[in-house]
Amino acid sequence: MWLDIPRPDYPPLSGSVTCDLLVVGAGYTGLWTALHAAERHPDRRIVLIDAHRVGWAASGRNGGFVDASLTHGLENGKSRWPNEIDELNTMGLANLDGMQSDIERLGLDVEWQRTGMLTVATEPHQVQWLRDAAADGEGQFLDQAAVQSEVHSPTYRAGLFSPDTCAIVHPAKLAFELARACTQAGVRIAEHTNARSLDTAGAAVRVATTEAVVTTRKVVLATNVFPSLLRRNRLYTVPVYDYVLATEPLGDTQLDRVGWRGRQGIGDCANQFHYYRLTMDNRIVWGGYDAVYHFGRKVDPAYEDRPATYRRLAAHFFLTFPQLSDVRFDYRWAGAIDTNTRFCAHWGLACEGRVAYVNGYTGLGVGASRFAADVCLDLLDGDDTPRTRLEMVRKRPLPFPPEPLASIGIQATRWSLDRADHAAGRRNLVLRTLDAVGLGFDS
Ligand SMILES: Cc1cc2nc3c(=O)[nH]c(=O)nc-3n(C[C@H](O)[C@H](O)[C@H](O)COP(=O)(O)OP(=O)(O)OC[C@H]3O[C@@H](n4cnc5c(N)ncnc54)[C@H](O)[C@@H]3O)c2cc1C
Hints:
- By secondary structure, the chain is of the alpha/beta class.
- It is built from 13 helices and 18 strands.
- Strands 1, 2, 8, 9, 10, 11, 17 and 18 form an eight-stranded mixed sheet that branches.
- A hairpin with a 5-residue loop joins strand 13 and strand 14.
- It starts with 14 loop residues before the first strand and ends in a 7-residue tail after the last helix.
- The mean pLDDT is 93.
- The structure holds flavin-adenine dinucleotide (FAD).
């Protein structure tokens, strides 16, 4: 749905190409990296390549929630970096504001709507969680009547509204418009240009692509869930598939039955949660719940076809909005999420500081990718900045074990999270053990 709009082609690279900075991967991370690099150093030759097309992967198929959190939610950040969580929150909000001002300054048509985030409790035990979150300053607590007056669903027991920390956006337009801004800033973009290998050659780095050899001073690897060109990085992330439905556009009377005049982004607070939002033409985009890992860590388009998951998503939609039983779904799709063991981005340098990389957004990268891009540029420039001083930036997560252990561990965690959702949130021994060793996942 998102990607089916007009956009320019960017011809592949061929022959031998020389540049100052090569960015591999033209999703949000690569696009922000190239754009901000061009703005920092207008004199440098910057090339941005993608194996397929600009924004075709996660960046063109996500839910479009632009969250301020850099740590995959406050709880995850607080438990891992208690001493810098306040700074991380401040930086996250500054990043969201910075993204909004970049979009305005560059005139990017991305359907940006800063409508805030409504988190809903659909189980009794979740109501107290939202009260506690409100007491912690995360937003305004809404009791059952108040949340239902915003959005009408018989499943809602309470809500938490955070007006400032989330925007919604058209994901593919964000990618395409960033590409346009990159070109205007002098970046050369090449699609259908797969980087196959990377090695150092004296003071330079040489990257062999489908039809070209690029010699460059520096490289940023923005390849997300795809196999890293640095082999030793491959154990740090696994692909987890996320599934989405989109309805037909709702008519005025259908919309009246749901309310939702504030057009907030909505998510429930289960471990296996749903996220949903309106598009500009009033479709409901409805995703989440099943997060599926397949044995062997592969990214494979065949995994996108999972009828049982789409049926489950549809059933949950009609439980949430029974008053929309006459609404049909027009689209369904899936994408791979780049998951690491700490559930938010990690960074690093390789090849004597000439190659920077970032991975591991774990499904919350639309906003965080802009921050991550700035970190990559700081690292490559050797700058000592508040960003590079963060423990979160300096420390790497634990890698996943090889198969079959990865698969056994991930399936046991998923099963336990589902159990916790149906047992008043109580975490079993598996989850408590993972929490204790710093691998715990809390939606
Ligand atoms: C279904 C779904 C819903 C999501 N919803 C949300 C949401 O609502 N909010 C949120 O914050 N996050 C969400 N996410 C996550 C978010 O989309 C990602 O974190 C973000 O898009 C990552 O951007 P990226 O640029 O790092 O990666 P990608 O968009 O995956 O881009 C990586 C690019 O690298 C290219 N590449 C890889 N290897 C090579 C190579 N060797 N040579 C050349 N090119 C290469 C690929 O072709 C690809 O285009 C969702 C993800 C999915 C799948």
